[in-house]
């Protein structure tokens, strides 16, 4: 209660700094539903997910890797084969090249990070791509089964091969992180992470152990990808890998690029874009837009205070700035904020419940070797633990990566509200780096798939921005073929058109064209 009272005083202080902000204090959008715990629970219910635990903190005796008195290696991995794969030709686990494992996090008291690794269906020397799902606190298995993994889950709990799985062009990793999410767990509550230093260190340590386990992949090109709150994770992880490379720490990682899909990266720029995007897309009236605009200075001030203090003031900033989002949602009743073309039915926006059902099947759990560990699809505790990180600007480390030749692709589905393309475009264009002016001056060109325009592309040097047509928050789910072609073309450097016409021919013969 004392903490909430202190938070309220900070919010009042911020509001009183701007006389016109009395609307904020009197606005019903600033209510209990805007509190982090309520927002986290709402996020989970919108996806029709019902995890039994709010975080995976377990007793030592329940651990599949700690129950034995014997010393276990830092990484324990097994080949596996999902049951009920449709039309797989009777492939063995060796044929499939599918792996699942646990990694013992060295900077923890008792944490184990769970991961899936799918060898490329086409070439073993293909790039290694890691995918990180946001939330914060949601399992990467959401993307694995509903976006870009090797399989889709059918209603009868069988698996069908995904024609557009990213393992078609890469060796693909999915990691349950931060700790406490998915099948990842700890025996000590203090291992739950609160900032990007902890998150990126854990991911870097995992990557070092993974390449030690798979030394033949260590020289392959490496790319970091993900979406949503991974707009925080990805730049921090990329910077940590780059730092490790420059300091000659452990295995050299051949980091070539990082891609952020509909991410939250620079809140000070992205939050003020909410009213403009909502007005442009017809979600609010001009009068409502003008009212919300009065809150923008408060949001910007609160983010500055968060950057200075970094603890309680960051939670206050979260509360203040999210009134912009909740104000839009109260006006645009029932709209799916992940895809504004759709309506939510009650609290339900998507039905991802089959993922939980499938991963809780005894046959699946046995094949993965997870023992009695619960599958926490999304963790409210991890969500709340990361609140002091939420309003931090993760764009600050990106220019150094660009200057050192590491590629960045920022892409966004045009119908997503929550991490909309407009806010993402604004921070990308505002970023200070040597190519800033030339990037801003570069022409927007069509991104073509199957002879049709699938998006609008802007590129210069190491930086590319792609607005994807007919897609919401989860681009690989809404436009799976375009997403696969995007990944392939970007990794082949065929999205950065230069001065002429750049064409990359895929294995199926389609052309990706970018004319600058």
Describe the structure.
Keywords: Carboxypeptidase, Disulfide bond, Glycoprotein, Hydrolase, Protease, Secreted, Signal. One of its GO terms (cellular component) is extracellular region. GO terms for molecular function: serine-type carboxypeptidase activity. It comes from Eruca vesicaria subsp. sativa (Garden rocket). With 516 residues, the protein is an alpha/beta fold. The protein has a single domain, classed as Alpha/Beta hydrolase fold, catalytic domain (Rossmann fold, 3-Layer(aba) Sandwich), CATH 3.40.50.1820. The chain contains 21 helices and 16 strands. The strands form three sheets. Strands 1, 2, 3, 4, 7, 8, 9, 10, 11, 12, 13 and 14 form a twelve-stranded mixed beta sheet that branches. A two-stranded antiparallel sheet has the order 5-6. The radius of gyration is 22 Å and the shape is globular. The N terminus and C terminus are likely disordered.
- Biggest sheet details: 12 strands, mixed
> Runs with pLDDT <50, length 5+?
1-8, 496-516
By DSSP, the count of extended strands is 16
Helix content estimate: 25-40%
The Cα radius of gyration reads 22 Å
Family: Belongs to the peptidase S10 family.
Subcellular location: Secreted
Keywords: Carboxypeptidase, Disulfide bond, Glycoprotein, Hydrolase, Protease, Secreted, Signal
Organism: Eruca vesicaria subsp. sativa
């Amino acid at each position: 209660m004392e903490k909430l009272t202190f938070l309220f005083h900070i919010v009042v202080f911020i509001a009183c700094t701007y006389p016109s902000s009395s609307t904020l204090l009197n606005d019903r959008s600033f209510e209990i539903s805007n509190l982090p715990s309520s927002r986290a629970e709402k996020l989970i219910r919108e996806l029709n997910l019902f995890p039994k635990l709010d975080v995976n903190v377990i007793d030592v005796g329940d651990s599949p890797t700690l129950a034995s008195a014997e010393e276990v290696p830092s990484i324990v991995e097994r080949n596996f084969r999902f049951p009920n794969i449709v039309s797989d030709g009777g492939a063995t686990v060796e044929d499939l090249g599918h792996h699942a494992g646990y990694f013992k996090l060295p900077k923890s008291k008792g944490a184990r990070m769970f991961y899936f690794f799918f060898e490329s269906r086409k070439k073993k020397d293909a790039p290694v791509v890691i995918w990180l799902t946001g939330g914060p606190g949601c399992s990467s298995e959401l993307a694995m089964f509903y976006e870009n993994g090797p399989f889709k889950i059918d209603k009868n709990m069988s698996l069908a091969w995904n024609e557009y799985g990213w393992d078609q062009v890469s060796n693909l990793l999915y990691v349950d992180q931060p700790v406490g999410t998915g099948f990842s767990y700890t025996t000590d509550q203090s291992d739950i992470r609160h900032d990007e230093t902890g998150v990126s260190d854990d991911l870097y340590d995992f990557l070092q152990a993974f390449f030690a386990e798979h030394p033949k992949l260590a020289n392959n090109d490496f790319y970091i990808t993900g979406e949503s709150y991974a707009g925080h994770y990805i730049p921090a992880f990329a910077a940590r890998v780059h730092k490790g490379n420059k300091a000659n720490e452990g295995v050299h990682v051949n980091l070539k690029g990082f891609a952020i899909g509909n991410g939250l990266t620079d809140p000070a720029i992205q939050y003020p874009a909410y009213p403009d995007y909502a007005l442009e897309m017809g979600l609010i009236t001009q009068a409502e837009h003008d009212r919300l605009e009065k809150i923008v200075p408060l949001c910007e001030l609160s983010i500055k205070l968060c950057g200075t203090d970094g603890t309680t003031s960051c939670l206050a900033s979260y509360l203040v700035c999210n009134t912009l989002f909740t104000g839009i949602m109260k006006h645009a009743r029932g709209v799916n904020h992940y895809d504004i073309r759709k309506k939510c039915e009650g609290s339900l926006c998507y039905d991802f419940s089959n993922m939980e059902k499938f991963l809780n099947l005894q046959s699946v759990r046995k094949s993965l070797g997870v023992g009695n560990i619960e599958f926490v699809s999304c963790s409210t505790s991890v969500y709340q633990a990361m609140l002091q990180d939420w309003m931090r600007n993760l764009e600050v480390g990106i220019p150094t990566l660009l200057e050192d030749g590491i590629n960045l692709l920022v892409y966004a589905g045009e119908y997503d509200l929550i991490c909309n393309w407009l806010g993402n475009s604004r921070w990308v264009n505002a970023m200070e780096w040597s190519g800033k002016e030339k990037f801003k001056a570069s022409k927007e060109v069509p991104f073509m798939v199957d002879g049709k325009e699938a998006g609008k592309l802007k590129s210069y040097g190491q930086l590319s921005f792609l607005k994807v047509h007919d897609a919401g928050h989860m681009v690989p789910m809404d436009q799976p073929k375009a997403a696969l072609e995007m990944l392939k073309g970007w990794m082949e450097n065929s999205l950065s058109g230069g001065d002429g016409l750049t064409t990359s021919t895929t294995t199926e013969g389609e052309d990706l064209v970018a004319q600058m």
